[in-house]
Amino acid sequence: MNQSMTTVNRKDKTEQWKSVLNDLYDKFQDHGQQAVKDYDDEAIHQARVNCRKLMTLMRILDPEQQTGLLPVFKKAQKRLGKVRDADVLIDAFKDRRKQSKDEGLGDEADLLKAAIEEHKEQRQFYRKKLVKKLPKLQGKKLKRQWKDFMDNQLPTLAIQADVNRMMRELEIAYDQKKQIYRQTAKAEGIEAAETLDALHKVRIAAKELRYTAEAAEFALNSKFRDHEETYKKIQKELGTINDTHVWIESLEELDAKEMGVDEEVRIRFVDKLRAEMIAAIQEQQRVI
Predict the structure, then answer these.
(1) Given 80, 167, 198, 225, which is the most exposed site by the fewest CB atoms within 10 A?
(2) Phi and psi dihedrals of 44, rounded to 5?
């Protein structure tokens, strides 16, 4: 009787994993094909989200990378991520440009217009890479690998998977990253490159916790499911800081003369962004 119940439980667990994985895989394929077809922003975003969730679950199921699936998803994620990040940056600069125009800051608006055009050229490069690479990554080879994984490898891997242990390990890593950040901020100051890098690693650790809680919710204890919103909030707040840092770096990398904008205007605008970033970091000090 007990052996029979164990067999049923194992089968149920495998079927649960199979249902979740196939749903993510189908969405990744569908949205990926749509993204390549017309560069639809939402299709690119959804393809990336579902690919990221597949990566999260494969790290839990297949830590030794026996299936060969994780490297394929990583490559797809890279190509989708380049386009998505460019989309997000361009949209952010468009919003900021509108704000500058509304405030009567024409010089800032002109700077942002030039930056948007520069990043559109970069995005076009990433789009071409996506069209070239993604269909091959999603093609016949992956489909064969996926079928073999579902039919032959998943049953054993699903029984061995311990999602709650993974969450505990990620929480420990998150706490360690926070401690390193506090020590670095105290030693180097909150504006130092080393401190910003340490803060970025805190965000990445929070993001891993959030993605794992989202993707593996069906297999988690309620304690960890309840923490998902907390990590989502932290990731969002730290993401705002990171986004501002990315904007600063992208503006500093662009050639003002080549863009036809006043260098002084760029310096003033970057200083304004840096002041906003520092204020946001100081606000986060109470949390981290």
Answers:
(1) 225
(2) -65, -45
